[in-house]
Amino acid sequence: MPWWAGKDEIKEYLKEVNKNGKVNRSSHFPIASLANMFVQVLEYCLFQPGLFLNYLGTPNKTSRYLTPLNTFVDFQNRRGIVVDGHDPIITLTTVQDLAAVVAKAVDFEGEWPIVGGMRGNSIAVSKILEIGERVRGGPFTVDVVKMEDLEAGNLTASWKLEASHPSVSGGEATKMMKTVLVGMLLSSAKGAWEVSDEWNQLLPEFKFTEIEDFLRNVWEKKL
């Protein structure tokens, strides 16, 4: 998705900075040498939480600093969009759990992994829809779209994303929402939203929020 191009640029920059190795925070160097070393070498982690679970609570605001946005599973209107022949696994993590893991990482005494995946929940789209029907107390209407249509930029579903975002002007919103939805469907079908579990392994005591518990807390008064 084009608005994430900056993330790739930063990733490539950090890769270049560290091409000759990286300093471990517990290592000891003379002050002058350490200062010079950090000009060239920087320990970093690419925190990867998958998709924010909070988005399945839209339009309810479940975090102070996260703007509610729709996805291809719309709990409010009991509907979903799936790609024909695909039932991908998606990692869903609350933004609160992401913040907690990052805070723990700051104090973590070991070396950071470059790829820092965290799995709040890894779950098939079909299972998300099943949970939705239980939590929302009724069946979901599901549209099926074809991969070839999505790859051509065509969205054949009966509905589209309608949420707005403060960073996007009104004139750009409609086009962007289509791009977001097509991009999410394509990337999920290709496995891009199933992330690794490096931080789950490094912080085994940390308990991530379960998807059904979170959604029941959000929607229990909305049935």
UniProtKB/TrEMBL annotation:
Oxidoreductase is among the record's keywords: yes
InterPro entries: NmrA/Isoflavone_reductase-like
Entry keyword set: NADP, Oxidoreductase
Organism domain of life: Eukaryota
The family this protein is said to belong to: Belongs to the NmrA-type oxidoreductase family. Isoflavone reductase subfamily.
Name by which UniProt lists this protein: Saccharopine dehydrogenase-like C-terminal domain-containing protein
Native source species: Exophiala sideris
Lineage: Eukaryota, Fungi, Dikarya, Ascomycota, Pezizomycotina
